[in-house]
């Protein structure tokens, strides 16, 4: 792995950790800011909305800046944002600060994937994108459990101070290791063509699959800590280890999903969506029993990321003639789903259904995804459509 890619990975890891670690310290944050746990869940929804809406808008507004300057600016904004979150006096200020950081997050991943592709040979582009995306996965393996443990020992504000230090490291790494000129030399597609690709059924059905996948993942993951404490009855000190195992499953799932994408993308995707519906039903059934629950959570984490890989691969393949749009659609689509999932979970909890009901919401979403994926696959087969190869010259 080249040094510039390592620098981009560090920043991706930092952004991924700050997005997901909130689930591990959610009860402490809620108590510290004087709100209920379901209300604190809107810190997840707000962050996701910031990525989904603000990220692409910021990327468009800053397209005249050099890529290195923009990436450094986003890393500095992240660093300042973590310090501000650590000092947040109330829930409203914390929510607004999280949204501001999320805007930088959304812009970062769109720009970083384009830059990563421009740093390597054409036959290494898939691996370059995978390095950036793996920052999110590794953040679940290392960042989230570590941040949760820090929060349990020294308080949730300490978690954000550590994130601030990580932001400093990411900024310094990119300043030192990224070349002055970065990015792809290919001429970007025009805005009209970028928009027209949305009419392809493979794109909008994949975005629906993203939404369903995120409901299946974050409807439960947002509230995983109180679920493990109150339903499963785990000791608080064991929760970081369960999150670590979930992250290990997710890391293995990324590689599994990549291999299956290269083999038979849609049949593999449909099968995994069905398996995830079964897994969520199993989680509902075994949630009061610690050992089966932990095993089910590891499998669930692996399937979440195994499913995510072919969805992203499909979008990139069918937007090869409008790749800039694809780079913003992927984080936006996933995070709209995260916001929706966290909000639905909060609504269910506020309605009195309890933490144990959350996996059932995910199972229903996965069944919807199976139906959509099957319909899209049949439609694609009947139309004999093939993915575009490259962006045409303007």
UniProtKB/TrEMBL annotation:
<feature type="transmembrane region" description="Helical">
    <location>
        <begin position="127"/>
        <end position="146"/>
    </location>
</feature>
<dbReference type="Pfam" id="PF07690">
    <property type="entry name" value="MFS_1"/>
</dbReference>
<feature type="transmembrane region" description="Helical">
    <location>
        <begin position="359"/>
        <end position="379"/>
    </location>
</feature>
<keyword id="KW-0472">Membrane</keyword>
<dbReference type="InterPro" id="IPR036259">
    <property type="entry name" value="MFS_trans_sf"/>
</dbReference>
<feature type="transmembrane region" description="Helical">
    <location>
        <begin position="269"/>
        <end position="287"/>
    </location>
</feature>
<keyword id="KW-0812">Transmembrane</keyword>
<feature type="transmembrane region" description="Helical">
    <location>
        <begin position="158"/>
        <end position="178"/>
    </location>
</feature>
<dbReference type="GO" id="GO:0005886">
    <property type="term" value="C:plasma membrane"/>
</dbReference>
<protein>
    <submittedName>
        <fullName>DHA1 family inner membrane transport protein</fullName>
    </submittedName>
</protein>
<dbReference type="InterPro" id="IPR020846">
    <property type="entry name" value="MFS_dom"/>
</dbReference>
<feature type="transmembrane region" description="Helical">
    <location>
        <begin position="203"/>
        <end position="226"/>
    </location>
</feature>
<feature type="transmembrane region" description="Helical">
    <location>
        <begin position="332"/>
        <end position="353"/>
    </location>
</feature>
<feature type="transmembrane region" description="Helical">
    <location>
        <begin position="95"/>
        <end position="120"/>
    </location>
</feature>
<keyword id="KW-1003">Cell membrane</keyword>
<feature type="domain" description="Major facilitator superfamily (MFS) profile">
    <location>
        <begin position="4"/>
        <end position="383"/>
    </location>
</feature>
<feature type="transmembrane region" description="Helical">
    <location>
        <begin position="293"/>
        <end position="311"/>
    </location>
</feature>
<dbReference type="GO" id="GO:0022857">
    <property type="term" value="F:transmembrane transporter activity"/>
</dbReference>
<keyword id="KW-1133">Transmembrane helix</keyword>
<feature type="transmembrane region" description="Helical">
    <location>
        <begin position="69"/>
        <end position="89"/>
    </location>
</feature>
<dbReference type="InterPro" id="IPR050189">
    <property type="entry name" value="MFS_Efflux_Transporters"/>
</dbReference>
<feature type="transmembrane region" description="Helical">
    <location>
        <begin position="238"/>
        <end position="257"/>
    </location>
</feature>
<feature type="transmembrane region" description="Helical">
    <location>
        <begin position="42"/>
        <end position="62"/>
    </location>
</feature>
<dbReference type="InterPro" id="IPR011701">
    <property type="entry name" value="MFS"/>
</dbReference>
């Amino acid at each position: 792995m080249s040094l510039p890619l390592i620098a981009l990975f560090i920043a991706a890891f930092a952004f991924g950790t700050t997005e997901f670690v909130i689930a591990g310290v959610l009860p402490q944050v809620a108590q510290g800011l004087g709100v209920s746990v379901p209300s604190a869940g809107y810190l997840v929804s707000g962050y996701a909305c910031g990525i989904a809406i603000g990220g692409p808008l910021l990327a468009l507004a800053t397209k005249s800046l050099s890529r290195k300057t923009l990436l450094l600016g986003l890393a500095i904004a992240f660093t300042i944002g973590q310090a501000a979150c650590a000092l947040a006096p109330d829930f409203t200020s914390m929510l607004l600060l999280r949204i501001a950081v999320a805007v930088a997050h959304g812009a970062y991943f769109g720009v970083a994937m384009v830059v990563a592709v421009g740093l390597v040979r054409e036959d290494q582009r898939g691996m370059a994108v995978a390095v950036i995306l793996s920052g999110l996965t590794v953040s679940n393996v290392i960042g989230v459990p570590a941040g949760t443990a820090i929060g349990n020992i020294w308080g949730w504000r300490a978690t954000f101070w550590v994130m601030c230090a990580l932001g400093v490291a990411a900024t310094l790494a990119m300043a030192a290791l990224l070349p002055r000129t970065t990015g792809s030399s290919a001429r970007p597609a025009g805005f009209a063509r970028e928009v027209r690709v949305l009419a392809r059924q493979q794109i909008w059905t994949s975005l629906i699959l993203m939404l369903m996948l995120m409901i299946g993942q974050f409807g439960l993951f947002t509230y995983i800590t109180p679920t493990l404490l109150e339903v499963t009855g785990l000791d608080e000190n064991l929760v970081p280890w369960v999150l670590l195992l979930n992250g290990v499953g997710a890391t293995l799932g990324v590689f599994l999903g990549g291999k299956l994408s290269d083999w038979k993308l849609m049949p593999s995707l449909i099968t995994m969506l069905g398996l995830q519906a079964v897994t969520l039903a199993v989680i509902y059934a075994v949630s009061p029993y610690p050992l089966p629950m932990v095993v089910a959570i590891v499998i669930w984490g692996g399937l979440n990321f195994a499913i995510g890989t072919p969805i992203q691969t499909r979008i990139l393949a069918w937007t090869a003639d409008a790749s800039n749009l694809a780079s913003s659609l992927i984080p936006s689509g996933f995070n709209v789903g995260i916001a929706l999932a966290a909000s639905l979970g909060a609504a269910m909890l506020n309605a009195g259904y309890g933490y144990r009901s959350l996996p059932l919401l995910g199972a229903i979403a996965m069944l919807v995804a199976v139906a959509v994926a099957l319909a899209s696959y049949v439609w694609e087969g009947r139309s004999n459509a093939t993915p575009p190869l490259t962006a045409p010259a303007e």
